[in-house]
Design goal:
Elements (H helix, E strand, L loop, with lengths): L12 E4 L10 E4 L11 E4 L5 H16 L8 H22 L1 E4 L10 H13 L5
């Protein structure tokens, strides 16, 4: 058993010499504390092949084309230009993204048509749907 040296969280191990039976090996056990953790069930995303994706790409291309690169004469100017581009892309992302709930249907192949078909089935409960 390999444990983290001097760890206050992982060094709660026990050697069970009375459990060894006929073997010369002793059983080891460790208690690992599990902390409560918040697991996100949503993500910020732009749906593939959506109007928002098209708008995002179009706006980023426009931002890159309109970016003033004539004043890049030193490292500081270059850094400012890159930071400006980063800011423009973040603004465009925030304008076009939406918060999506992560579900078992959060797969790349799952699209609006799949959602419409399953909604139709749920409404009718018909095998034809």
């Amino acid at each position: 058993m390999f444990l983290r040296y001097r760890s206050t969280k992982l060094n709660y191990h026990f050697i069970h010499s009375n459990w060894q039976l006929t073997s010369d090996h002793a059983l080891l056990s460790i208690t690992i504390l599990i902390m409560n953790e918040i697991i996100n069930i949503s993500k910020l995303s732009i749906q593939q092949n959506s109007e928002q994706e098209t708008a995002f790409i179009r706006e980023v291309i426009s931002d890159v084309k309109n970016l003033n690169t004539l004043n890049i004469s030193n490292k500081k100017c270059f850094k400012n230009t890159v930071n400006n581009l980063n800011s423009l892309i973040n603004q465009t992302w925030n304008k076009n993204m939406k918060q999506m709930r992560i579900t078992r249907h959060s797969k790349q192949w799952w699209n609006n048509k799949c959602k419409q078909v399953i909604d139709k089935y749920r409404a009718s409960r018909s095998l034809e749907s």
